[in-house]
């Protein structure tokens, strides 16, 4: 089998997919070819079609765009062009194509597959190929991967390049925010999205924008008055800036375009605010791929090769998609045909979800929010979301400072809508967080719950938060104050919470790891045969090391879950020519004796005269910094989901004038919010159950 990688559009992070296809193909013993310049290269043939090697895709992960080129091809749209392309493939016995592009490119590939038999017949009649070639190349298999920053393809939760585009947008918004606050300005940002408003909607959530316009949901008539009133109220509450996000394809109910300039003129004319327009344009397509996109593209590339190898003569063309947390194969043309149908239904779905939240009846419940454990980027976004959704649903929200320690000390105060303004982009924990467990202070915590009449608890944190809720649940027989709904939102860079595929903060940590590895490799670009030992966080959980190693292109990853011995650390002094480039190895507190220092000293000694060794301990830089777009939105969504669960549970538990969670179902009230219920799944590692159980038992 000869899987072939074809590039069609200049989307970001395609290089990671190309690298995965090439190396997975070589790994399973197949020949792999590059087709340069997309369909144009397939039609022209010649040097545009070259065999790929393992080394030809080295150092590609951190490079944006596509190194094998991309071009639109009018000739391929004609029958004559596809005939030339078929001839070029048959000459090299290529019968498997891995196509990376948008729905138009994938549709073209499927048409090419459907015409394949007829094209071979024509080539035979023209004498360009013989009967043996027809028999040998009788079937063409197609597997697609979607590369689109708009995330506008049905069947997949995320397309390659979308997360990196969000990174560019949020970087610009964060930079603009500082000048906007200084000068009390309103900024109107135009982002890409001619027919799909995903980038505009998600970036608006990630930066806490005041208003957003998307093509799928034209604003109601009179939106001008509503928007200006909203901006005016925001300024009257003390805000010094306003952010408005406009998708380039935004329209009103009459189908007329809503442009960024129109919005700016409207604000200036009605409110007199100093307003500026920023059009991001192709900045969103460029730059270094994010960690999420690198892993997504790598996973899809591996699955694409497996799909090609397992295909039979009757296997229809498929597209590799991300559904929840799994890479799956779906019928290509069914997904393409669903695009227009989904676009027509989106407006009603979005509108109903918003109105349902606004019309929720008032309640008289008090809900406390606290952070527990080590800080994780995205905690503040989760708190902001929980507070505002809770207030919108009629609850009275209370903030607890410094985790369970602040809880038993009485550091509790009411928190209102405006108190969490601007929290989305802030790193760390503005509420304060500590690792203190509640077990030794149960009586004092029960007293504070009684004093403040707290009816539900929302705990945002890591493994300490998980264990803390278990301790509170276990004490319900003794303290009836703990018989209230309790929900945990996982937030830890280590991603070691049982029951959840991903935790808030882990994506930001992964980006910190990959950024550091990219810089390390760049600093040593002029030095050959150098080994880097990089230590990440994670303790007894190897998620950061494993996924960070995949995203950074590490040669080896040592983690606690995967036992290894001295034989696995043996150094090959006679490195093959294929390994002359700089190597990066990650180590995550993997062994009591084989520490980072031990591995560094071992490699330094054994590699003397052959290669030199360097080590880098990333430390707490993985916990700091502004949260990534993924963590901002993940925190926003899971906290909103947690508040919805609390609201439902409060209704079910309210009897006889008070809230009482059933003692026999005490553990059911302490729930972990899973991210699989949301359309942005990104848990890339399935942990062994034994390692998590061991971690639970250690507490």
Automatic annotation (TrEMBL):
GO terms for biological process: canonical glycolysis; fructose 1,6-bisphosphate metabolic process; fructose 6-phosphate metabolic process. PROSITE patterns: PHOSPHOFRUCTOKINASE. The keyword Nucleus does not apply. GO terms for molecular function: 6-phosphofructokinase activity; AMP binding; ATP binding; fructose-6-phosphate binding; identical protein binding; metal ion binding; monosaccharide binding. GO terms for cellular component: 6-phosphofructokinase complex; membrane. InterPro entries: ATP_PFK, Phosphofructokinase_CS, Phosphofructokinase_dom, PKF_sf. Transmembrane segments: none annotated. It comes from the Eukaryota. Pathway: Carbohydrate degradation; glycolysis; D-glyceraldehyde 3-phosphate and glycerone phosphate from D-glucose: step 3/4. Keywords: Allosteric enzyme, ATP-binding, Cytoplasm, Glycolysis, Kinase, Magnesium, Metal-binding, Nucleotide-binding, Transferase. Its cofactor is Mg(2+). It catalyses: beta-D-fructose 6-phosphate + ATP = beta-D-fructose 1,6-bisphosphate + ADP + H(+). The keyword Phosphoprotein does not apply. Residues 11-307, 366-646 form the Phosphofructokinase domain. Pfam families: PFK. This is 6-phosphofructokinase type C-like. It comes from Stegastes partitus (bicolor damselfish).
């Amino acid at each position: 089998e000869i899987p072939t990688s074809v590039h069609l559009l200049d989307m970001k992070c395609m290089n990671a997919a190309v690298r995965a296809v090439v190396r997975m193909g070589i790994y399973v013993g197949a020949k792999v070819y590059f087709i340069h310049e997309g369909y144009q290269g397939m039609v022209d043939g010649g040097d545009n079609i070259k065999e790929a090697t393992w080394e030809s895709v080295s150092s590609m992960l951190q490079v944006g765009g596509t190194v094998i080129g991309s071009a639109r091809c009018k000739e391929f749209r004609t029958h004559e062009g596809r005939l030339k392309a078929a001839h070029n493939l048959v000459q090299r016995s290529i019968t498997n194509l891995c196509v990376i592009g948008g729905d138009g490119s994938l549709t073209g590939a499927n048409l090419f597959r459907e015409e394949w038999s007829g094209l071979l017949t024509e080539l035979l009649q023209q004498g360009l190929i013989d009967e043996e070639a027809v028999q040998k190349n009788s079937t063409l298999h197609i597997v697609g991967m979607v590369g689109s920053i708009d995330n506008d393809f049905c069947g997949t939760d995320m397309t390659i390049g979308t997360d990196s585009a969000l990174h560019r947008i949020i970087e610009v918004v964060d930079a603009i925010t500082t000048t906007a606050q200084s000068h009390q300005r309103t900024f109107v940002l135009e982002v890409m999205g001619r027919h799909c408003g995903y980038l505009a909607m998600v970036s608006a959530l990630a930066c806490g924008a005041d208003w957003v316009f998307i093509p799928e949901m034209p604003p109601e008539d009179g939106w001008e008055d509503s928007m200006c009133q909203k901006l005016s109220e925001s300024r009257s509450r003390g805000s010094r800036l306003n952010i408005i996000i406009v998708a380039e394809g935004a329209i009103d109910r009459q189908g007329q375009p809503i442009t960024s300039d129109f919005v700016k003129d409207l604000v200036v004319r009605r409110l007199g605010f100093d307003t500026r327009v920023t059009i991001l344009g192709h900045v969103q397509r460029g730059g270094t791929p994010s960690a999420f996109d690198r892993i997504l593209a790598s996973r899809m590339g591996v699955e694409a090769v497996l799909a090609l190898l397992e295909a039979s003569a009757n296997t229809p063309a498929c597209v590799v998609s991300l559904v929840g947390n799994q890479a799956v194969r779906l019928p290509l043309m069914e997904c393409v045909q669903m695009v227009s149908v989904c676009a027509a239904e989106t407006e009603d779905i979005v509108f109903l979800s918003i109105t349902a939240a606004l019309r929720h009846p008032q309640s008289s419940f008090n809900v406390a929010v606290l952070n527990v454990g080590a800080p994780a980027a995205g905690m503040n976004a989760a708190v902001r979301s929980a507070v505002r959704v809770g207030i919108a649903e009629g609850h009275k929200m209370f903030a607890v400072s410094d985790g369970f320690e602040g809880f038993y000390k009485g550091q509790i105060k009411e928190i209102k809508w405006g108190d969490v303004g601007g929290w989305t982009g802030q790193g760390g924990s503005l509420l304060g967080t500590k690792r203190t467990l509640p077990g030794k202070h149960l009586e004092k915590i029960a007293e504070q719950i009684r004093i403040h009449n707290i009816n539900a608890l929302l705990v945002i944190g890591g493994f300490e938060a998980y264990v803390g809720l278990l301790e509170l649940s276990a004490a319900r027989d003794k303290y009836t104050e703990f018989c209230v709904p309790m929900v945990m939102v996982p937030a830890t860079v280590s991603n070691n919470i049982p029951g959840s595929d991903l935790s808030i903060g882990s994506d930001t940590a992964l980006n910190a790891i990959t950024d550091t590895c990219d810089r390390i490799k760049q600093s040593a670009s002029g030095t050959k045969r150098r080994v880097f030992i990089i230590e990440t966080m994670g303790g007894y959980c190897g998620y950061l090391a494993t996924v960070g190693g995949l995203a950074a292109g590490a040669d080896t990853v040592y983690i606690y879950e995967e036992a290894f011995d001295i034989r696995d650390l043996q150094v090959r002094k006679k490195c093959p020519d294929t390994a002359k480039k700089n190597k990066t190895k990650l180590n995550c507190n993997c062994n009591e004796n084989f520490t980072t220092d031990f591995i560094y000293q071992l490699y330094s000694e054994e590699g003397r005269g052959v290669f030199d060794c360097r080590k880098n301990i990333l430390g707490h830089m993985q916990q700091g910094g502004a949260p990534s777009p993924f963590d901002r939105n993940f925190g926003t969504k899971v906290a909103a989901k947690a508040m919805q669960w609390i609201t439902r549970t409060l209704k079910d538990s309210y009897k006889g004038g008070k809230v009482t969670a059933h003692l026999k179902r005490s553990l059911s009230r302490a729930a972990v919010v899973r991210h699989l219920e949301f359309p942005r799944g990104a848990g890339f590692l399935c942990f062994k159950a034994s390692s998590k159980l061991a971690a639970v038992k250690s507490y």
